[in-house]
Fold:
Amino acid sequence: MNGTTRPRLRSVAQLALAGLTLAATQGATARLDGWDLKAPAPVADGRPATLARANEVKCGECHREALESWAATTHALAWENEPYQEDLVGRKKAESCHGCHAPVALHGEEDELLATKPEARKDERHFGVSCESCHLASDGALLGPTGAPTQDHGTRKSESFSGAGSDALCATCHRTTVGPVIGLVRDFEQWETKPAGASCVACHMAPLREVGQGETKRTVRSHALQTPRDPHFLAQAFGVTLESAERSTRVVIANRAGHRVPGLIGRELEFVAVALGPDGKELARETLVLTTEAYLPVGDSLSLELPVKAAKVALRARHVDPRLDKPVLFLERELAP
Ligand code: HEC
Ligand code: HEC
Ligand code: HEC
Ligand code: HEC
Ligand code: HEC
Structure:
């Protein structure tokens, strides 16, 4: 699909079988401690909910679930996305941008060798960060977490699809600070209190179920990326505690994400803490706004200082994405000392 060898593709009928195996083995999943990931809430932000030409992606004949979840992400939309196309207008070297927004296969001659500078595809750029970008090997085989054998195409196991190896895959594009891009991978690497098992994939691709046996036992994860547009996910980015003193109350907000927040340019996070007296009356209020410039670093915390002793504190927080019709309210809690 991108000028490199294509995998040999077979008819759709065979996949009915693979579908059955998947359904039959629902069970335990590999979860990161303290994180509860559900398939993300649907995108409802006025952008195309899914890539218009997703059905042209051949892999989807057999990997329907992967296709449908990927097609609704900004990976699929990385080329068509309005912010991207708008940003290209008037740029002299726009070509240098395309390598991460519509890349060729990222794996090189050897399966574990990833591009240091992804190159742009010549054709089918509308597929953005495509299935092949991440999975295609130089000989046309498809690389995955276990390399489960099939007659439909060659498969091989690659470190790029588990643990720290998958961080390297994500890092090919998420490390640099080019254009408006925030190099989140650098934050992740500097995270001193990283919990065991933390990876980009562990937080951003929800585990769905276990499949396979023995060597090919693996966790199927959703290709739908967890994003701050889903309040359930975003709320987990923050650990909130209340500290009470003689004449003041402090709300401490700790960053639990694997990098700074907000993690994308132009987004804002707004926290409002209201100190309440025993009768529920407002005594004081404080607001904290996190932006691209004034962000909360990885592993760090910030506090809202209320100059009164409160009986309770009402905390509300929302995420503002300028492209959404309205902010996403993700925290609404009453805290008691
Ligand atoms: C090394 C890979 C890479 C290159 C090269 C690159 N980008 Fe990106 N781009 C990304 C990643 C990764 C993101 C996701 C956001 C982030 O991590 O900050 C992104 C996000 C964006 C966004 C934000 C979209 C949104 O939803 O707000 C825009 C706009 C953008 N890029 C424009 C550009 C332009 C213009 C160039 C060329 C100057 C460029 N990019 C080059 C990787 C890249
Ligand atoms: C940004 C890179 C990326 C893109 C794009 C991508 N994948 Fe994946 N894929 C992964 C990662 C990472 C895993 C392994 C997740 C894990 O740890 O279990 C994976 C796992 C898989 C698996 C094995 C697990 C399973 O579901 O049985 C299949 C099959 C797969 N992807 C197919 C696809 C298809 C089809 C597309 C396009 C519609 C696609 N992928 C797009 C990164 C990607
Ligand atoms: C004709 C059906 C068919 C098509 C088309 C197809 N696949 Fe597969 N693929 C399979 C089957 C069947 C398996 C074995 C899965 C299993 O045992 O659960 C598989 C396995 C995989 C694996 C290995 C997962 C692991 O165990 O590591 C990856 C990755 C993958 N496919 C990606 C793709 C991508 C990307 C495309 C499109 C370029 C594609 N496939 C097209 C049927 C297909
Ligand atoms: C080929 C380059 C590339 C690779 C590899 C890549 N990304 Fe991205 N990613 C992007 C670009 C480009 C964007 C922004 C697209 C846009 O907004 O138009 C993005 C956006 C995202 C977003 C924001 C999604 C949203 O809708 O807000 C997340 C989360 C993300 N990537 C996670 C990952 C993870 C996890 C991996 C590894 C499995 C990964 N990425 C691998 C290029 C890449
Ligand atoms: C411990 C969990 C965790 C880990 C590990 C993690 N993230 Fe995140 N990520 C989050 C949370 C929670 C958010 C939402 C907070 C925000 O950005 O405002 C987020 C936001 C993002 C965003 C911004 C999306 C948007 O629309 O604003 C991108 C891009 C992203 N992560 C990429 C990555 C990459 C790449 C890695 C690996 C280096 C990674 N993340 C590791 C939890 C995690």
About this structure: The longest strand covers residues 268-276. The two ends are 59 Å apart (CA to CA). Residues 232-335 form a domain with the Immunoglobulin-like fold (CATH 2.60.40.10). The chain has two domains: 12-226, 232-335.
